[in-house]
Amino acid sequence: MKVVATDSAPKAIGPYSQAVVANGMIFVSGQIPIDPATGNLVDGPIADQTKQVMSNLAAILESAGADFSKVVKTTVYLKDMGDFAEMNEVYGNHFPENKPARATVQVAKLPRDVSVEIDCIAVL
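Predicted structure:
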């Protein structure tokens, strides 16, 4: 098992790793819309928040030696399922060909009261 850590994505805000590589798989922890350069939350429309989340995921995947083409599964957590279409448009731009399996759920509350969190599993 190998822990993945990069300064190009937000530091973990609890007792967990940004990602872990095990048996040729990368397990990326849920990312929320935190700008790693400032440590501030990206506020505003769900599209802007989703862009930041996807940027954070991309940085972690790159640090582990992969990219979105290697992602096999994601889970999207939304505070409001009414944001699905906007989130989905931004999300879909990152998977033009190799579309991973996905679950999307509405949750009561997310860390730091954000509107979206996404995690993923990828192969090396």
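Summary: The longest helix spans residues 46-64.
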